[in-house]
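CORE FACILITY INTAKE
Project code: CF-77B
Contact: R.S. (postdoc)
Sample description: multi-component assembly, four entities in total
Requested service: structural model of the whole complex
Turnaround: standard
Below are the sequence entries exactly as provided by the requester. Do not edit them.
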Amino acid sequence: MQDLMNQTRKLFAATHLAATLAGSPVFAAGEQVGESPWGPEDEIGTLNMMSDASRLEILQRIDAGRIYDLGVDLFVGMPDCCSAAFGDPTYQMMMLHAPARGDGSKELLSHSSEAISMNTHTGTHIDTLSHFGLHGKIWNNVSADEAQGARGWAKSGADKYPPIIARGVLIDVARAKGVDVLPASYTITVDDLKTALDAQGTSLQEGDVVLIRTGQMQHWPDRSKLALFSQSGLGLDAAKWLAEEQKAMVLGADNLGLESFPSTNPDNFAPVHSYLLAQKGVSFIELLWLEDLARDGVHEFAFITSPLKLRGATGSPIRPIAVPIRSSR
Amino acid sequence: MQDLMNQTRKLFAATHLAATLAGSPVFAAGEQVGESPWGPEDEIGTLNMMSDASRLEILQRIDAGRIYDLGVDLFVGMPDCCSAAFGDPTYQMMMLHAPARGDGSKELLSHSSEAISMNTHTGTHIDTLSHFGLHGKIWNNVSADEAQGARGWAKSGADKYPPIIARGVLIDVARAKGVDVLPASYTITVDDLKTALDAQGTSLQEGDVVLIRTGQMQHWPDRSKLALFSQSGLGLDAAKWLAEEQKAMVLGADNLGLESFPSTNPDNFAPVHSYLLAQKGVSFIELLWLEDLARDGVHEFAFITSPLKLRGATGSPIRPIAVPIRSSR
Amino acid sequence: MQDLMNQTRKLFAATHLAATLAGSPVFAAGEQVGESPWGPEDEIGTLNMMSDASRLEILQRIDAGRIYDLGVDLFVGMPDCCSAAFGDPTYQMMMLHAPARGDGSKELLSHSSEAISMNTHTGTHIDTLSHFGLHGKIWNNVSADEAQGARGWAKSGADKYPPIIARGVLIDVARAKGVDVLPASYTITVDDLKTALDAQGTSLQEGDVVLIRTGQMQHWPDRSKLALFSQSGLGLDAAKWLAEEQKAMVLGADNLGLESFPSTNPDNFAPVHSYLLAQKGVSFIELLWLEDLARDGVHEFAFITSPLKLRGATGSPIRPIAVPIRSSR
Amino acid sequence: MQDLMNQTRKLFAATHLAATLAGSPVFAAGEQVGESPWGPEDEIGTLNMMSDASRLEILQRIDAGRIYDLGVDLFVGMPDCCSAAFGDPTYQMMMLHAPARGDGSKELLSHSSEAISMNTHTGTHIDTLSHFGLHGKIWNNVSADEAQGARGWAKSGADKYPPIIARGVLIDVARAKGVDVLPASYTITVDDLKTALDAQGTSLQEGDVVLIRTGQMQHWPDRSKLALFSQSGLGLDAAKWLAEEQKAMVLGADNLGLESFPSTNPDNFAPVHSYLLAQKGVSFIELLWLEDLARDGVHEFAFITSPLKLRGATGSPIRPIAVPIRSSR
């Protein structure tokens, strides 16, 4: 871990971060970006599983007006994935206009506004399929040489993403394991997921938005306890089980980067990211607030969110909501 | 108009923009910020009209999975309210990480991400109650001296805003008047609203999200035709009728700044803004994409959006959706 | 001109600006990036002409403590080369800390600071050799594929630039032509330069910093009169004469982009830029304030400036000074 | 120290940073902002000591063309005063234009540029008199209520600062004390300065730019060893001796914040800052690179720098140079 952190620290003093983050060429031959079953023009992968019928089905099961807010506040000084890890900019908000000081009685109209600047992967956010690729290509064989300009990708940007309305399922791994928070760097396994689902009495369905709870948001917003490179999260096998066997549409977790870090693969510092985004076309959501759902034992819900259509962006801040539904059982 | 533009141009060369934007002290004595009927701690005004029951009522009327996307793309070079008018920063997106150039075969993992910077009043967005005040105070008697720091307001920021789920109503004024786009600077009257509602066969209810269509998004995204200071929009009387008689919860329009500009009140360049936000506690949404609803003649719908919880911000970019409902008639 | 502006407007709505700014492949075969006479490691081109001896020679000729300030103010709303032309971000300054409002007597320490954000080509600034290249390469055969990462170039960045101390010469073309300001898009010729030098009684020497006055700063800071694509400036022949026959070390001008615009070469919108930077290794300075030198008829001086060492940047804001010297005649 | 760091960490999660940074009201009655001896319009304090004569005197003593570069590189990931201490934004540089990827032969012109964003107190920089005040006022009785708008101060901004040309003196405290680097938080005393000057054989003169060497740049750019709140630096008594008895014009040091931290005054976390800037009108420079001067034993020199004229800013990045001079003894 210390080695990784030292290496990371050196990395962001370097001009060519991207180059040095890449692994060695010994990666298994089979690991190439995926070709979309939805055709050569597809840019959103498994989000194609949604339809008017699937949306209507879940919306009509809503049986309460109680809303669970799954998004976090964005504020100066907030924990983030990438400022400490990669030297990326922190979230900032600065005023543009403010009521002038002095004798207020002279001023009728008091105008305030502000600008924000942020990594798109800040706060609760969705990762789009352009966020990670393999060998210079992203999902559906789109190469950086052809589709990446100075300001972003022409393909699979957040602007291509539809609003998401689907059944959401919470898998409360922390609770199933009887802990408040999973241990640092703990890697969630297929068995962990199955055990938690059994304990909850929940079963997954094709097209679900599957949200994994590690309990780490108990530490929110303590920066000293929420660091990307020591977080617990999804393991590669568990991700494969969710994507391939359970046919989840979207994944999510209550941590900074979905998967557990550090990676045990010396050639790939984020193997779950590249597997889901580049090989399987599965988008996912990070830094979700799942504490209220967990407290109330709400494991099934209508999941609703609308990514901002940031043209060419590899991610978008979102504030998803969960609404309780009638059980399908 | 030319005078206004010249004046504006001078304004943003000045250090103390806010001060000079303020009007003279001759404003009518009655125009003070409002005190909230929801108590001294209230920061969200009419959004208090929502309840579990109100949300459930509208969600249960959903009868289609077809979704109307009411948000616009955000992109470098997009039209905005305030860069030309006030010298505010434009929307920008810049890359943080990108697959390195050169021999791609050496690089397993292709990592891309980017930062955005923007005025919070960019793209489709909601204005919070702190955006405009009167005499140095905002809604509910909160003064800048007490509640505005170097980075924003402690009160009525976007972080205090709940997700919004309510009945939405489109009032298609452009269609009712038989034009594609209302004339430049046209001021919508109470009669215009009544006539359009009649023509549509729609009636308003307490707690509605009322969206006004001027047709200006027919010009999207042509910057030369979408300028704040020449836009058509809501007049003050029409705003009063909606807020006080119809008891709308939230307003919205398909233009850069809700109301018509320029203002005819020399003391207040945005009288509808200050009336709604500071006096009545009514939040509103700007730069809505209403073209699809208008095309399909959908005038009643479930309106769903989640402002980002930008701490202390006077606005938040959003991407609302509309979902068709069974008629209440 | 109108066509160019329209084209430009369309350009910055596109994701791949850089690609579309490029010309057609019919450019003359001879126009390739230059190889440095100072060796394969050279990144600064003609700045290698400076030596301890050359600096001492000019410093010892200083004969007055009077200073000419050749830099402009940077402020919100200032004219710039590239926000209108390319959709680039404008200069912004926003507060980070400010004395709190309210009862000032409670606050001993009043701390203020701010952040700036800007295109590095804003205000008075130097263009480094990485700013323009040909066919994907910059000066000294450095290719983007090898040396350009997600955050900038590894070669010829402003961090490699030495402080500049050399003889400066003002060529007051506007005065020689008897006008306050050269006409829009006027292209300065070799004859214009010779005539002005004769009129002034000045002769050029190898290693000079040669500053060309068009008079356009008479309009400073009127944005409506200072637009990149209609500016007067250096022509390609004049640039060649200065670089090749007069062996100038650095060039400069009192306009937004050194050369006259629009270019008459359909394949290259900035042929003087690519000639000087990519083919000849000559850096240059834009948006210089030459009015005081011109007013006082000071045509020879010690020129002193220190580019900020912005790692990998293609430009740096500077504030050069000129100090009167004893004539060399 | 730990307490201070904890307190600091809490601080930047708060909305009203400025308010909480302020001390208690028990500060001695005498500590008020100073009134300028150069009159009620003065905004630059002791920089008024410069004159054409003073500049010429020092420039004419230059006897070598060898230049000492006193500025540091600015780069993503660089150490800074204030991102860790206050949650301020880090230095960032991001590309605006870059040669398009793909078939390079199709692209004649290769255009690159970038934007930077930074706290103005980043890298080698000068602090202006508006940076710290007392009781809501800055130097010369200018109050925030009257002169501070939403975007900065109308008084004492960097735009008011002249280029600085004066005798510079290096006081190498680290060398005089026989250490590479002064211990963490070491406070430099008057005796330390006198001893070092004696050891060097240097004497101070009215109007000098006095640069203090602690040796901390031996750690450059190791972020883990260059933290504001544990740095060695000038003590208040030493600052008073330099300002009042030696009549220094400008001070400087090779650390992030001039003075030693943490402050021993519970009411003022930066007492040397407020003393020099607010009470005495003495500007100073931080993060100077003094290693080359120290290595060569150059203790007297012509000091030359030009602050960028950032309108209303409390600081400006600079890259000063030192040029050897004939001794005055």
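Facility notes:
- Chain D touches chain A through 31 residues (CB under 8 Å).
- The radius of gyration of chain D is 20 Å.
Invoice: internal transfer
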